[in-house]
Specification:
Layout lengths: L5 H15 L2 H11 L6 E16 L6 E15 L5 E7 L3 H14 L4 H28 L13
Antiparallel strand pairs: 1-2, 2-3
């Protein structure tokens, strides 16, 4: 398996933001950048199922945990860039907007897309910190007293 290039890692990170964002956040980001004229659906948003796999303890043998709903979309801009999106759930609008943002990310509007994603990244980071604080509040520190030469 080959390592991802820097640009691939950046696109992957942007796609991760699309996946964690709400439909409203993505729609607001696209409105801030401006909806591209002439964008067409290569693959209209469609629903499907994907098998979710798990591992006991994170390292055990893989098993099929069950199926999850997924929506996918592909959008082509008039300039030729193709954006794709796979989103958990059944939200066709979110998948299409995410695919459109992915296509715009590949154009000279990349910096605008990244700037529009910054508020979403901040919200995601804040949620992670809140979760970490809640978990830390339940932490129990165990210690052992040494008793002689046992």
């Amino acid at each position: 398996m080959t390592a991802l290039t820097g640009i691939q890692q950046q696109r992957q990170a942007a796609m991760g933001v699309y996946a964690r964002a709400t439909t409203e956040e993505l729609d607001a980001a696209l409105e801030r950048i401006g909806r591209p004229a002439g964008a067409e659906d290569m693959r209209p948003p469609e629903l499907g199922l994907v098998m979710a796999r798990g591992r006991m303890g994170g390292t055990g043998a893989p098993f099929n945990a069950g199926e999850v709903s997924v929506t996918r979309a592909a959008v082509r801009l008039s300039s030729g860039e193709v954006g794709v999106a796979y989103q958990l759930g059944r939200d066709r609008t979110k998948a299409r907007v995410a695919a459109t943002l992915d296509a715009l990310w590949q154009t000279d509007k990349r910096s605008e897309v990244e700037a529009a994603l910054d508020p979403i990244r901040a919200r995601i980071a804040e949620q992670i910190q809140l979760k970490e604080r809640r978990v830390a509040a339940t932490k129990v520190d165990f210690f052992t007293l040494v008793r002689g030469e046992d």
